[in-house]
Amino acid sequence: WEEAPKRSDFHASYCFHLWSVNFNKIVDIYRESCYKSILNMRIRYRALSQHNKELDRFTAYEDDVANGVMTEEEMMKVPGLDKYHKYRLAFDKLDTAILSLDRTCMLLAHL
Predict the structure, then answer these.
(1) pTM of the shown model
(2) pLDDT tens for residues 76-93?
């Protein structure tokens, strides 16, 4: 930063204070932060999916409902469905956040 005095006595209240900002460095720092956030979210996604391997069977149930092999009423009777919906919501939120951050990184790459 730099001081530009209005008077010859250099009193702080009578000076202009000027700052300069390196815009490219700020963009690089922000982009790096976005990439780090994406990595952390992907690690969390992987940890959630490895910790809950038993939830894969519910995906098969959803496919059965879509193909007409099973009705939705039969699927609702499967135990553990509420846990599956809770984790599915968490996965969907992570997917949305990753895509949003990825879009931000792409925009920053063109600045």
Answers:
(1) 0.61
(2) 887 877 877 888 888 889
